[in-house]
Amino acid sequence: MPSQIPYTFSRKTKETDIKLNISLYGKGNVCVKSGVGFFDHMLEAFAKHGLLDLELECVGDTHIDYHHSVEDCGIALGSALKALLYPLEGVERFGNASVVMDEANVECDIDLANRAYLVFDMDAYHGEFKGKIGDFDIELVEEFFKALCFNANMSAHIVLKRGKNLHHIVEAIFKAFSLALRRALVVNPRIITPSTKGVL
Ligand SMILES: [Mn+2]
Questions:
Q1: Which of 27, 45, 64, 73, by CA, is between 20 and 30 Å from 183?
Q2: What CA–CA distances, in Å, run from 180 to 97, 115, 173?
Q3: The pLDDT value given to residue 62
Q4: If you average pLDDT over residues 32-40, what whole number do you get?
Q5: Average of pLDDT values for 82-104?
Q6: The predicted structure's pLDDT at residue 194
Q7: Cα 123 to chain centroid, rounded
Q8: Maximum distance among all alpha carbons in the chain?
Q9: In angstroms, what is the span from residue 86 Cα to ligand 1's centroid?
Q10: CA distances from 125 to 64, 105, 139, 161, 175 (A)
Q11: Averaged pLDDT, 169-188
């Protein structure tokens, strides 16, 4: 099974300086200081519902905007996940979650495939899935999950089934993803390597 030992990762560029510690089989203990209030709120939900223990600190160029900080947190989290997941052994591999938040409903399907892909389908939203929640640019949600999936080498399909309130929709996205991940990580002693290829 993937490592149960907490994993520390740091990444420093001219745009961001990120340190994180993550445990895949945790209890949802979370301490996040990303420098972006709404994003902290989302990462807290992410850790809580994924039963991840997560400490993350990002010092980024938020005087420009939040793009680098949010994307680079995705890169850092994805890099840590990749190190913890593969070679994948002894777990379900596939995970699915449909999460409701009031009127919003988001479905996420995950494959810990050691291959990267992201479908981010918000077509059910009335109008363009753009704009801001507080001072948080909604386009960054897709950027975060793209960075996460491509650095973790995992596939995810995130699909909005219905919803009107952007805060609810985005929160349901983060919860659905982490709950699907938690389910993909369920240990199954009958599974050695969950692939006919013999290795993932
Ligand atoms: Mn909320």
A1: 73
A2: 5, 17, 11
A3: 97
A4: 97
A5: 97
A6: 87
A7: 20
A8: 51
A9: 32
A10: 28, 11, 14, 8, 18
A11: 98
The b-or-e profile of 11-44 (16+ CB within 10 A means b, else e) is beeeebebbbbbbbbbebebebebbbebbbbbbb
Ligand 1 mean position to 44 CA, how many Å? 10
104 C-alpha to center of ligand 1: Å? 12
Res. 33: pLDDT tops 90: yes
Give ∠ CA 104-109-113 in degrees, rounded to 5. Answer: 155
Look at the block and give the residue holding tokens 């938040």: 101
Helix, strand, or coil (residue 194): coil
How far away, in angstroms, is 192 Cα from ligand 1 center? 39
The structure's pTM equals 0.97
Cα 30 from Cα 56, distance rounded (Å): 8
CA–CA distances in Å: residue 113 to residues 36, 73, 116, 135: 31, 22, 8, 35
Taking the centre of ligand 1 as the mean of its atom positions, its distance from the CA of residue 187, in whole angstroms, is 30
pLDDT in tens, 98-134: 999 999 999 999 999 999 999 999 999 999 999 999 9
Residue given tokens 């002894």 in the structure block:
90
Distance 160 CA to ligand 1 centre (A): 17
Q: State in Å: Cα 115 to ligand 1 middle.
A: 31
How many angstroms does the Cα of residue 111 sit away from the middle of ligand 1? 27
Tokens describing residue 72 = 């680079």
